[in-house]
Amino acid sequence: MKRFTSVLLAGGLLVTALPAAAQSTIRAGDSVQGSLSSSDPSLEDGSYYDCFNLQAGAGERVSVTLRSNDFDAYLAVVEGRNCSSDASPETDDDSGGGTDSRVEMTLGSGPYSIRANSLGEGEVGRYTLAVEGLAAVRPVDPIYLGRASSQWFGDLATGDALAGDESWYDCYAFDARSGQTVGIGLTSQDFDAYLSLHEGGTCDAEIVSDDDGLGDGTDAYIEHAIERSGRYSIRANSFTSGETGRYALVLEIE
């Protein structure tokens, strides 16, 4: 069974169109028009694919989109050259809208190749494969709230720290003592709020999380009894990848 990764990205692509036959390498800013046919290589599920080597450096963020009016597009970014590896860190079916595919990812040391594929067995037809460079993601830079109850207004924005599900988040740190109880609320009129509490000050060791716990609507709430004195952190996050907007964060320590 093919693995699905939901990745959403708003906005269009600014690309230069090139015929598929003219290159086997693709880079940010390129758009390739190609065609799947019965003479192309196939996977074990009987689907045909074309392969492109991705020219990009470690740490770069890219969006890869596969569109077709002739077949249900399926996209895989594969570790190694020539699509010969089984290691596919990112795959997608329908995140490009309709039956089109899109993957958004931060690249490791690579190299990588892109498999322009169909979801179903034996599907053929024309397609467009495009790669867009994205802005670098800001490293986690916690905002320290202190040891007392506080309220903070902020913005989720493209370029904030990025969670594993490709959603943006801000990180807040505070100190609490064993036996205290913390109540944390996250509200927003712009996105579906998602909240998580982490041990340590860098938002990377989750203790508990919440989506809609503040009541009716899409606001989040966490209440947690502190077991060990020390520093803790909060992710002010969205439930869905790509969401941005204003929010209010409330921390109560008792």
In short:
This protein has 254 residues and is mainly β. The protein contains no helices and 20 strands.
Query: Span between N and C termini?
Result: 49 Å
Q: How much β-strand is present in the residues?
A: over 45%
Order of helices and strands: EEEEEEEEEEEEEEEEEEEE
Rounded mean pLDDT score: 87
- Total beta strand runs: 20
Low-confidence stretches: 1-23
Which class do the helix and strand fractions yield? mainly beta
Based on CA atoms alone, the radius of gyration comes out at: 22 Å
The biggest sheet amounts to: 6 strands, mixed
Distinct helical segment count:
0
Name the helicity range. Answer: under 10%
Could you describe the 3D structure shown?
The protein is an all-beta fold and 254 residues long. It has strands at residues 16-19, 25-27, 30-36, 49-55, 61-67, 73-79, 90-92, 101-106, 112-118, 125-134, 143-146, 150-156, 161-162, 168-176, 181-187, 193-199, 206-210, 220-225, 230-238, 245-253. The strands form four sheets. Strands 11, 13, 14, 16, 17 and 19 form a six-stranded mixed β-sheet that branches. Strands 1-3-10-5-8 form a five-stranded mixed β-sheet, with no helix packed on it. The relative contact order is 0.18.
